[in-house]
Design a protein that fits this description.
The protein is an alpha/beta fold. Among the domains are: about 80 residues, Arginyl tRNA synthetase N-terminal domain (Gyrase A, domain 2); about 40 residues, no CATH class; about 120 residues, Isoleucyl-tRNA Synthetase, Domain 1 (Orthogonal Bundle), CATH 1.10.730. About 55% of the residues lie in helices and about 10% in strands. A five-stranded parallel β-sheet has the order 7-6-5-11-12, sandwiched between helices. A hairpin with a 7-residue loop joins β9 and β10. The two termini are about 40 Å apart. It binds one RNA strand through α3, α17, α18, β14 and α21.
RNA sequence: GGUCCCGUAGCUCAGCUGGAUAGAGCAACUGCCUUCUAAGCAGUAGGUCUUUGGUUCGAAUCCAAACGGGAUCACCA
């Protein structure tokens, strides 16, 4: 309707306004709730053209529109706004159109370009945490939204399965794992621990042991004892220590950190970890076996976590396969003059013209850095999938700079698809106590959180007691859906790019703007429809008068396809979440205000049932797009 | 210091391609279950939209500066 009005005004501009008008002058929007009307046109832009008062201008446009469109029953001009009132007929036709659609708002599958969505991308040295949850739910939801909007979507993740951090866990396990009676070190099998948890435990253990050693080393240094009488280290230490004199706290702690780094570099543990990394890179069989084994434990653990989350991937990339990629590209770029070489042999790109800095793309020893790898991986992906048009990277905003540079480099290397690559950047998740810090043990574990949320859902659902006739398995399934639905919605409803606060109590709340509230409404509708299926034959769409409550719901329903498009275009499930909440609120308002089953007028009753059914369908799809299940009872 | 992001009710967030009296939820207070699931609905209260300038018919929204918070600027990933 908006489109039709807009088109009409443009096409007949000459007769209405006496001149051609720019489409940007036409501002159509839903009328504010406080005002009567359905569609509002802002009249101000036309006042100058028509050289009359806002009232006369509005009157003139209103006349023209209501003559043209029989759907416009009447109109009002108030304060420079033209409020169009649409006929019941129009709303009934819209309801009819929406209710008979298969998946209203869903574009034809694969009618839009293929995109790859990357999310999760964990390290294999520790379990997933709250930050990953935001990342994963966000990326997963965006995948579904893009798919619904017509794209073919390939869901992927890069698993950071190599590097010094992995070696730390491996080394700690080798050194510090106790032996059991059969002489075995700890494994998921003999401890019952989830694989990623076990490996994470040894990562923490490494840190603990390292800190102890570091403390020891610094103690020795302070007493003037330097291993092998190492002069260089001694000088550095003394220099740093002297720098501490007369400094304030902030500078002091920065210097202390530097001293710690110095001590770490001299520690046995760090040295051993680095040696292990070298052995790994040399493909030492024993190291490789250990690495494969421990990563295997982690994958098993991750699989269980992903499964509970209800997310999946189509294609996995492993850093151990890709970390050598990109070097050729850099050398090619070097030849074509995009990169340049410094005296020490390191390769850089100069981005100062773009307002950025110089950026390293290859170390002086010829080895790859993160950037090198990402260049290679991106190119490989486009080779793997010949119909790929772009990549969406779901990665935290601390890497904004990295991706800015990455996309620029890819563009300079001549890959036209670089402009279809998008960094879906999201803000950090803070706790009421402040930032999550692994060092301070304030990290919220993903499995623990999911468990907690499901337990809470269980407790509160039992309290409500609407579950007669469900068997035990169905009940457990339901608790799971409610708990996770709440958690997902909580993390998704906030604008992705904004930093957000995670309040544990609010995340398991069932009332208000929450996942369970949306699910509850769905369950309610299902329960209603179980008692009376709408019989479409009885609905004569021309003969029913609509109440405001009903019209409001239809208005919201109409918006759904538009919201999906917007959410897809801006990669923002939050838009969809807010929309869904509005839809559900208007439905509940309607549900509470009118009778349905006991309505005596058959036509009205059937219309209301159709309305409820339609909301149920759209709601189910909307929840699906957020990765949330829609229970039929709760 | 350079670059980028953010600042809206006590708290958590919408609104930001300029438009009517700035909205929700939570927390507080009042009502509504012999009637379709009260995980609901209706209502009361709560605001110098960080500040100051500018752009114009009109600014929470656009521009500039200041203040406050965060991120990033590694031969780390």
């Amino acid at each position: 309707m908006y489109q039709r009005i807009s088109n009409f005004l443009i096409e007949h501009a000459q007769t209405i306004f006496g001149e051609q008008i720019s489409p940007s002058l036409i501002q159509l929007s839903p009328t504010k709730k406080e005002q009567t009307g359905d569609i509002t046109l802002v009249v101000f832009p036309f006042v100058k053209i028509l050289k009359t008062s806002p009232v006369d201008a509005g009157q003139k446009i209103g006349d023209a529109l209501s003559n043209e469109f029989r759907e416009i029953a009447s109109f009002e001009v108030i304060n420079g706004f033209l409020n169009l009132i649409l006929s019941d007929d129009y709303w009934m036709n819209e309801l009819n159109r929406i209710s008979t659609a298969q998946h209203f708002g869903k574009a034809v599958s694969n009618s839009k370009p293929t995109v790859m969505v990357e999310y999760s991308s964990p390290n294999t040295n520790k379990p997933l945490h709250l930050g990953h949850l935001r990342n994963i739910f966000l990326g997963h939801s965006v995948s579904r939204i893009l798919e619904f909007a017509g794209h073919e979507v390939i869901k992927t993740q890069v698993i950071n399965d190599r590097g010094i951090h992995i070696c730390k866990s491996m080394l700690a396990w080798e050194k510090f794992s106790p032996l059991n009676s059969s002489g075995e070190r700890e494994t998921p099998q003999n401890t019952g621990l989830k694989g990623d948890k076990l490996v994470g435990k040894y990562y923490v253990e490494f840190d603990k042991q390292l800190n102890a050693e570091v403390k020891n080393i610094i103690g020795n240094w302070e007493n003037g004892q330097f291993e092998h009488d190492h002069q260089e280290i001694k000088l550095k230490f003394l220099e740093l220590s002297n720098a501490k004199i007369d400094k304030d706290e902030k500078v002091l702690s920065a210097i202390d950190d530097k001293i710690k780094d110095l001590a770490k570099s001299q520690s046995t543990l760090m040295r051993e970890a680095k040696e292990m990394l070298l052995r790994w890179e040399a493909r030492d069989p024993q190291t490789y076996l250990l690495w494969t084994t421990m990563n295997g434990w982690v994958y098993e653990g991750f699989d269980r976590t992903y499964q509970r989350m209800g997310v999946e991937f189509d294609k996995l990339y492993y850093e151990s396969d890709t970390f050598l990629l990109g070097k050729d590209q850099v050398l090619k770029g070097l030849n074509s003059g995009i990169f340049f070489k410094k005296d020490d042999g390191s390769v850089w790109i100069d981005l100062t013209d773009e307002g950025l800095d110089e950026k390293l793309v290859l170390r002086s020893d010829g080895t790859a850095v993160y950037m090198t790898q990402d260049i290679g991986t991106a190119i490989e992906r486009f080779e793997d999938f010949s119909n790929l048009s772009g990549i969406v990277y779901t990665v935290g905003n601390e890497q904004d700079y990295h991706f800015k540079v990455l996309f620029l480099i890819l563009e300079k290397l001549g890959f036209s698809w670089a402009q279809n690559c998008y960094h879906l950047s999201y803000g950090m998740v803070d706790l009421p106590s402040g930032k999550m810090k692994s060092r301070e043990g304030t990290v919220v574990d993903a499995d623990d959180l999911m468990q907690e949320v499901v337990e809470k859902a269980t407790e509160m659902t039992k309290e409500r007691g609407h579950l007669d006739g469900l068997d035990e398995e169905e009940k457990l399934n339901l608790y799971e859906q409610i708990g996770l639905g709440g958690l997902k919605y909580y993390l998704i409803k906030v604008d992705p790019k904004k930093r957000m606060l995670f309040n544990p109590e609010e995340s398991i709340e069932l009332n208000g703007n929450t996942g369970p509230f949306l699910q509850y409404t769905h369950a309610r509708i299902c329960s209603l429809l179980k008692k009376a299926e709408p019989n479409r034959q009885n609905v004569q769409f021309g003969e029913v008068n609509l109440l405001d409550e009903e019209k409001e719901v239809v208005k919201n329903l109409i918006q759904f396809p538009l919201m999906v498009q917007e959410a897809a275009a801006s990669y923002s499930p939050a838009l969809l979440a807010n929309y869904t909440y509005e839809l559900v609120k208007s439905f509940n308002h309607f549900y509470q205000a009118v009778k349905i089953l006991s309505e005596e007028n058959v036509k009205t009753k059937e219309m209301r049932l159709v309305l409820a059914e339609t909301v149920g369908g759209v709601l189910k799809d909307a929840l699906y797009l957020m990765g949330i299940n829609a229970p039929t009872r709760m």
